[in-house]
Input
Amino acid sequence: MTERNDSWIEAGFAELARSGIEGVRVEVLAKNLGVTKGGFYRRFKDRAALLEAMLKRWREGRIAAIEKQASLDGITARERLQALIRLYSERTNAQAMAIELAIRQWARTDERAAAAVAGVDAARLSNVAQLYRATGLAAESADARAFLFYSFVFGQSLLFLDRGQRKRIQLIANSAETLLEKG
Output
């Protein structure tokens, strides 16, 4: 992928986050980038090629991120799980969440997007299940706890809690403790 392709892919992600897959159109992206449509066709065969490049970038980026985030790097598996919960609950990246949700919506009607989402979900669950196994849980329990972990991590980011920031932080901390209980 060339640097010039990157600008189209990044513009595609920005538009995806803003208006969903229907908004990722060559004309819209060219306008947003301040260039002609011809520039697009010098880099991509067609819109489908851009969408494929976007899915590839998202899939590879998400998988690399979770593999890095789940590596122990000298701390215990429990500490790593705590760090992951903090990472996902304390720092909300609105743009990344909008892209995640838009790709998941896209996956409801597109097999390529569904395959990308399934690959990312499998990597996320596998890496977190490995952490849970490292805490001493049996494989089946570790898999179930990894599923609950990601249900919590993504679910809590979507909830609008009528409790205030301090109560939200306490609720997340209490939920995290439940996720980190032994066996």
In short: Residues 3-179 form a domain with the Tetracycline Repressor; domain 2 fold (CATH 1.10.357.10).
